[in-house]
Amino acid sequence: xxxxxxxxxxxxxxxxxxxxxxxxxxxxxxxxxxxxxxxxxxxxxxxxxxxxxxxxxxxxxxxxxxxxxxxxxxxxxxxxxxxxxxxxxxxxxxxxxxxxxxxxxxxxxxxxxxxxxxxxxxxxxxxxxxxxxxxxxxxxxxxxxxxxxxxxxxxxxxxxxxxxxxxxxxxxxxxxxxxxxxxxxxxxxxxxxxxxxxxxxxxxxxxxxxxxxxxxxxxxxxxxxxxxxxxxxxxxxxxxxxxxxxxxxxxxxxxxxxxxxxxxxxxxxxxxxxxxxxxxxxxxxxxxxxxxxxxxxxxxxxxxxxxxxxxxxxxxxxxxxxxxxxxxxxxxxxxxxxxxxxxxxxxxxxxxxxxxxxxxxxxxxxxxxxxxxxxxxxxxxxxxxxxxxxxxxxxxxxxxxxxxxxxxxxxxxxxxxxxxxxxxxxxxxxxxxxxxxxxxxxxxxxxxxxxxxxxxxxxxxxxxxxxxxxxxxxx
Length: 475
Ligand code: ADP
Prior knowledge:
The protein is of the alpha+beta class. Helices cover 56% and strands 17% of the residues.
C-alpha cells in the first residue's frame, strides 16, 4: 500500500520535467568534457612523443655518420650533444652497439654492460618501442640505429624523457573541468527546478478550478495554459453541462410527477368534500360523484403504472428479454385487442403486411410500445376515421407505420411529444385518460432495441409514426 503510494507520488510530471532538464544538460556536458580532455591529452602527450622520436632519429643518424658506434670516445661533441638532449628532456640516453654492449650512457651507469631486454632485442630486429609510464611520469623510446646506405641495424638507442610537465598541465585542466562541471550542475539544478515548477503551474490552476466546481463555487472550469489542458477543460465542461441538464430534467420530472399525482387526488378531495358539505344529497348525486371518484382513482393508478413502466425502461438495456418474435402475429394481436375501442367511434382499424417478419425483440415491451401508438391513433382520431398499421422489412430492419386520420399535431409541438408528461391538448388528453407518458415509454423501448421513431403530422389531416428496428438485436 505504502509502496504504491510512494511510487505514485514519485511518478509526477514535476519530477519528470526536473529529471529531463537535468539529463538534457548533464549528458551533453559530460560528453563535451570527455572529448575536450582527450583532445588536450592527445595534443600534449602525442606531440611530446613525436618530438622525442624526431630528435632521437636525428641523434641516431649523427651516431652513424660520426662512426660513434665504433669509437665513442673519439666523438666528444656527440657525447656532449647527448648530454644536452638528456638534460633538455630531463631524461637519459643510452647507446648500444651491434654486440648489445652499452657504449654510452648519459648517467654513466651502464657503460660497458650488456642490456638484455626484450624491447631492446626487438629493436635490433628493426622494431621501435615506445611506452608512456604515467606513474613514473616518463616516456621511453627504444629505436634501432640503422645504416644510412642500407637498413642494417648497427646498434640501438634508448631515450627516456620526463612527461611530468604535461601531466601537471593535464591535472590542472582536469581540476578546472571538475570545477566547471560542479558550477554548471548547480546552474542546471536551478534551471530544472524552475522548469519543473513552471510546467505544473497550469495544472495547479486547473486543480484549483476543479476544486471550485466540486464545492459549487463556480459551474464550469476556466480554460488554462496548454492547448491539451484546454481540450480537457472543454470536454469536462461539456460533461458538466450535460450533468447539469440531467439534474434539471430530473428535478423537472420530479415536480411533474408530484403535480400529476396530485391532480386526481385534488379532484377526489373536491368531490368528497362537496358531498360531505351537502345536506340530504340525493342518492343519484352520490352515485354520480362516486363514479367520478372511481374514474380519478383509475387515472391515478394509470399514472403510477405508466411511471413504473418508464422507470423500468430507464434501467439498463440488459433488462430486455430478447426472443425471436413473429411480428405479424404480434401486430395482429394488438389490433385485435384494440378493435372494440376503435369500433366505439366507428374508426376503421386495418393492418397491411408486406411479408412475414421475424425479429429478435422483447415481446412484452414492444407490445406496450406499439400499443401506445395505435391507442393514440384511435384516441386522437375523428369519429368514422381510420388507422392503418403496416409492417415491412429488408435484410436488416423491420419498418412499422401507424397512420391515422386524426386531429394531427401542430408543427411546433412535434419535437416535444416524446417528452414525459407533455400533452398537446391537456383537456383532451385528460378526457381520454392520457398520462402524457405513453410516447416517452414508446421511444425508450424503441431506443433500447437500437431502433428509431419518427413522426409526420398535418393538423386536422392526420399523423403517421414510423418505427425502424433492427431484425437482429445487438447489445
Ligand atoms: P397521452 O397519454 O397524453 O396520450 P402520449 O405521450 O401518448 O401521452 O402522447 C403525448 C401527446 O402527443 C398527446 O397528449 C397528444 O397530444 C399527442 N399525440 C400523440 N399521438 C398522437 C396522434 N396520433 N395524433 C395526434 N396527437 C397525438
